[in-house]
Amino acid sequence: MNRLSDLTLLSLSGDLLLCLAVLTPESQFLAVLGQILAADGKVHIEDVPRSEWIALVKDAHVGYITWEDYERNEAQLDMNSQAYAPQRLSPPREGPALLQGLIICGRCGERMTVRYHQRGGQRIVPDYLCQSKSIAQGESPCQRIPGFDLDRVIGALLVERMTPEVLALTLAVQEELVSRAAEAQRLRHLQVERAQYEADLAQRRYLKVDPDNRLVASVLEAEWNTKLRELEEARAIEEQYTQSDQHRVSTQERAEIAEVPERFRQFWTDPKTSVRQRKRAVRFLIEDVTVHKTDQIVAHIRFKGGATQTITIALPPPFAQSRLTAPSTLAAMDRLLEEYTDAQVAEQLNRQGYRTFDGLLFESTHVYQLRRHHGLADRYARLRSQGMLTAEELAPSYGVAAQTIWRWYRQGRIVGARYNDRGSCLFLPKASQPLLTESH
Ligand SMILES: [Zn+2]
């Protein structure tokens, strides 16, 4: 097997990858590492899915069914069970959310999706959102978790856990596997020797028989043929396994592997490392992360191999509760709310050079939180206090349906004003409507 071909399979950073690729094919090294990262020094034995196996010795025992049949059955069972528990692990995409596709809602158990928003007008930050219920039943989202700090802490955790001790343990596991492979190979060779012996024996018996005794001769000939066939099979099996034998770690590879923790740290902290590479690395090491938000974020991390770790992360301070927002900013916001919706106010504030208390650009949620916190009336309340009406309230004075009021508004025939960013409107009462002619 050409181990260098793994280089193209994985697009981790070159140096790290070299170390990983020399160890095991199919990037199982990282999976093993994930298993061990979470270990506490004790040996745990547990069932893991095939994808996480480190070795597979076929035909070590005589089976009731062939390996191919077994595989087919497993595939069928797997297909059937998918209907009940669909695996919806999303492939890494280009957004920066590290845990995309790996994060599970701790309240309802659904997989969470990612929403991105912009902070400071430049940095894209993720929120993890549980909205399966809100989509299916029109309820509000079950949980919304700010992702920036969570991602950062989990990245740091991976770097922290990848230590020389962990790698030494990984190597010990690898050595163990290689020695077991040698044992299996010895047994297969014994099988060949036994088959050879029996074939020789059958041959001698056949040659010794009196050729005139035809019945005995034909039986012994058939037996000899059978033994020759068995010998052939035993040799084929031995040949096949010798070719695909386990890889023993060389001294040079060992030296390279010793550098993995440092290289992983460099890989992780290097600004040139792409989002895609990071996400890919996380997927090798972490099975999933279950999050629950209370007055902090509690995250249960399940590493590959099933071991877990729980971490807590403080929530970012609620924006509105910061008393740092300058009074002049609040006054400007109050003035703008006379004329604009939250999103428009944010835009106007940014344009006029105002910034949030931590120097970032305003977003509509900032305006929303600040006006609620400081008791500033919103646009709706202000328009209502000026006597503006809903379409339903205005419609009877014209003797039409509310939909007609909306149609007239869209046609520019009556005057209304938007009070939120979803396009909801209030309208002037009939007596104050300047445009509409009665000839409708
Ligand atoms: Zn949920």
What is the compact description of this entry?
This protein is α+β, with helices and mostly antiparallel strands.
Order of helices and strands: HHHHEEEHEHHHHHHEEEHHHHHHEE
Total number of β-strand segments? 9
**What percentage of the residues does DSSP assign to strands (E)?**
5-15%
Into how many domains do the coordinates divide?
3
* Cα end-to-end separation: 82 Å
Task: Please mark out the parts with pLDDT under 50 across 5 or more consecutive residues, or reply none.
Answer: 1-29, 34-45, 82-92
Radius of gyration: 35 Å
Mean pLDDT: 76
The largest sheet, given as strand count, sense and whether it forms a barrel, is:
4 strands, mixed
Task: Give a written overview of the molecule.
It is a single chain. The chain has 440 residues and is an alpha+beta fold. The protein folds into 3 domains: 238 residues, no CATH class; 57 residues; 44 residues. It has 17 helices and 9 strands. The strands form 3 sheets. The protein has a 4-stranded mixed sheet. Helix 16 crosses helix 17. The longest helix is centred in the middle third of the chain and has 45 residues. The termini are far apart. Bound molecules: zinc ion. Zinc ion binds next to loops.
